[in-house]
Amino acid sequence: MPELSIIGNQTIPEYGGGLCQIATTLFRAVLNTGLPVTDRQNHSYRVSYYERDGNGKYIGPGLDATIYSPAPDFKFVNDTGHWILLTSKVQGLQLSFTMYGTPDGRKVQIDGPKILSSLPAPAPVYEYTSKLQPGQTIQTDIAHPGGRTTVTYTVTHADGTVKKQIFNSYYEPWPARYLVGK
């Protein structure tokens, strides 16, 4: 089924849309394991359901990951020196990943997400079309505030080595869009 994808300056249904739920969920699972992330891109605008954890608790923007062929992509590295088993599970509307491996004593700290700045959504955009009855209006996109966030990901290894990654996200302020019959 076609699902929503952000293409250029519009949100449109297309086949393969919605796959970012997989990337976002896997990104969060990888952070919880202490593995290094080598490629991650946030969405163009703030997607409200990615601002909640798997139990519906608000965590804020900045822990999402988007994928689209051929790019952007989400990538991480298994630096444990051992095999990792990655399993997935869908239960109702919830997707989860579980990662199994050989414990090596690493400890993880995730500081954030922290909102650095906020921008209100811009004024609505109206596009006039002859495909609708005169005066008929259809909303094609909803407004989203923009802003910048940061997450600091710190992994402390058993030998005391500390590795930090900072994930900065910029979200465009996104206007509501309407089609109006002329």
Describe this structure in words.
Helices cover about 10% and strands about 45% of the residues. It is mainly beta and about 180 residues long. Strands 7-10-11 form a three-stranded antiparallel sheet, with helices on one face. A three-stranded mixed sheet has the order 8-12-9, with no helix packed on it. The model has no long low-confidence stretch (mean pLDDT about 95).
Q: Domain count, please report it.
A: 1
Secondary structure: helix percent: under 10%
Q: Which percent band covers the strand fraction?
A: 35-45%
**Coarse morphology:** elongated
Mean pLDDT equals: 93
The class by helix and strand makeup works out as mainly beta
Across the major sheet, the strand order is 7-10-11
Biggest sheet architecture: 3 strands, antiparallel
Distance between the termini: 31 Å
Q: How many DSSP helices?
A: 1
Brief summary of the model shown:
With 182 residues, the protein is mainly β. The chain has one helix at 20-33; strands at residues 3-7, 10-14, 37-39, 75-76, 85-91, 94-100, 107-119, 125-129, 137-141, 146-156, 162-171, 177-181.
Topology:
Blueprint: E1 3-7, E2 10-14, H1 20-33, E3 37-39, E4 75-76, E5 85-91, E6 94-100, E7 107-119, E8 125-129, E9 137-141, E10 146-156, E11 162-171, E12 177-181
Parallel strand pairs: 8-12
Antiparallel strand pairs: 1-2, 3-4, 5-6, 7-10, 9-12, 10-11
